Amino acid sequence: MATETLQVSTDRRIPIWVNIMQGILVLIMLQQVFELFLDHDALVSAGLLVDGDPQLNLIYEMGSRLGVIALASIFVMITQNPVQYLVVLLMNVLREGGEMFIDPLYPVADAPASPAVDFGIHVVIVLIEVAALVTVWKIARQEKGAPVSE
Questions:
Q1: Distance between CA atoms of residues 76 and 2, nearest Å
Q2: Would you give the distance in Å from CA 105 to the centre of its chain?
Q3: Helix pair angle (115-143, 82-105), 10° resolution
Q4: CA angle, corner 132, sides to 103 and 114, nearest 5?
Q5: Number of neighbours of residue 34 by Cβ within 10 angstroms
Q6: DSSP readout, the chain?
Q7: Residue pLDDT, tens place only, 112-148
């Protein structure tokens, strides 16, 4: 049986701005995971009901899924593998793209911004994430020897 080791890149192929963006997103996700698992008062102040097994089931499942995304993000930030990074960036775009419509349509009780401002903020975030996705996609294609159109 062949053994493989985790390949951590010593040459930074992923631009620093992409890593910074991903690091900020990881911190936000970890803060949300903390709230979902341990700070139910924050959930209640946002208008969520935390009073029974069905609600707790959904809250803990969301926390678990978000935790997995955060761990996958940390993993790709360590390995700096462009192909793996693409998977995480695609998850970011899809997650934030969904939130771009969900948050303004169904605002939480303690929302820090109006629905219109929240939508605008999400548009900017999604555009940055799409730019990161395209940037890393080009890097991945170059590494595979495929031509990259500008």
A1: 23
A2: 21
A3: 170
A4: 20
A5: 13
A6: ---------SS--S-HHHHHHHHHHHHHHHHHHHHHHH-HHHHHHTT----SHHHHHHHHHHHHHHHHHHHHHHHHHHH--HHHHHHHHHHHHHHHHHHHHHHHHS--TT-SS-HHHHHHHHHHHHHHHHHHHHHHHHHHHHHTT-----
A7: 889 999 999 999 999 999 999 999 999 999 988 766 6
Average pLDDT over residues 45-63: 91
What are the C-alpha distances in Å from 88 to residues 21, 105, 106? 12, 26, 26
Q: What is the CA radius of gyration of the chain?
A: 18
How far is C-alpha 145 from the geometric centre of its chain's CA atoms?
Answer: 28
pLDDT digits (tens, 9 = 90+) for 82-91: 999 999 999 9
